[in-house]
Sequence to fold (450 residues):
Amino acid sequence: MATSYDYPAFFHPEQSPLWLASVLAALGRPGPAPDSAICEIGCGQGFGLCLLAAANPGRQFIGIDLSGAAIAQARHRARAADLQNIDFICADIRDSAALPDQDFGIILNHGMLSWVEPPAREALFAFIGTHLAAGGVAQTQYMSAPGGEAFRPFRQLFQTLAGRADPVADGLALLRQLRDGGAGFFQLHPHASQTLDNLLREPAGYVAQEYLSPAFDPLPFASLADYATRHGLEFVGSATPMENIDAISLPEGLKSAIAASADDLILTETLKDLVRNQAARYDLWQRPAAALAPQDHMRALADMWWGLLPAAPKLDAASKALAFPTRIGTIEGDPAIFRPLLDRLGEGPARFDQLMELAVFDKRPGLLNQVLQMGLHARILHPVQGFDTPEAAARLNRHLLAEAKAGLEIPALAAPPLGSGLVVAGGDLQTLAAGTAPAWLRGLFALGST
Ligand SMILES: C[S@@+](CC[C@H](N)C(=O)[O-])C[C@H]1O[C@@H](n2cnc3c(N)ncnc32)[C@H](O)[C@@H]1O
Fold:
């Protein structure tokens, strides 16, 4: 009998409303209303959306997916945690009559566009064009050209094996045999070996979605921009913060060549994708609107609170530069800039305008803005919010800890202070479940009284 593969649970921090608000503020763009509704098209088993709903109880969430099995799993988890602010709809994005008729401040779509046929892409952008509220933002994550093109041969191999009982296991075994035996493809594409190692670690359902879906299209930015423009949307930047900062995300020798095309968005993004050999894009789309006026831009930045994430390093006078891996190599973060910032945030969350009082940022809001975005990108800093109703997060997290104990893979827990989810190491899952985790960790996950 042929194996059936379930897509695993994932959490993508770039989908959280505070992450998106901070990126938009950094870009000087208007953002969605703080309490606006959030919709994810192609939500799969809804793991990420449940985390976001539990961490943001004041917002309404709707997840949509055509897979009945995935929606059943999503509803089961939401019910088990008694989440009151989330609904799941089993529908095809092409079936407009089955979709909710309301506006959303945030519309999310991750891992779908490159694996569906053009009519579904068209329908997704039609939905966004119709239902994105003023000031709202849509985020589409997709496999992009040219970086994704190198993996067509993987796709070809898995397709050839599609009739077998377990094409994923057989395909991975063959690829590993080819790689280890010195096959020319891997010699010409050394990074494919790294990808193969990643695939060998991923659940089979991830590999199946990647290489056995009806389509496999590493999409050029130009094609997405065409859908978006026809539906009244404009590109405003990337949800991957580092990629909005040309000064550090492009090689020195190519900056002027790319700057020369600045008045042609599609050419600029196409060049950047070549420079970064971009394999995945996290595009942000909005309705055309003027950028924030300078004083409004400053206010949007100044109002934001920031805090340290558990992964933040401790820097001392002897610390070397912080390393930020990017598509063009490792970028160094000057410890003379990061140390005072991390020290200050080590005392507790602070507002942007309070951080501006650190001597290193004196009259340099642009530098602070850039450094905070680098910290967000590196998962060491995050915007934080006040919250007074952590019960939903506590219920969901307790349920997830029980799932973890029963052997399920739990990639993250809900963290209400971040309005997001946060990856938790296996050991921390155990101490949280046992109630022996340190108080600050229990507080982060609303498990104070467990
Ligand atoms: C790779 S999964 C991503 C799940 C989730 N967004 C995540 O990142 O973990 C893509 C999802 O898109 C859904 N999908 C594909 N085509 C669709 C369509 N036409 N309408 C609605 N959902 C669709 C699939 O059923 C699948 O659950």
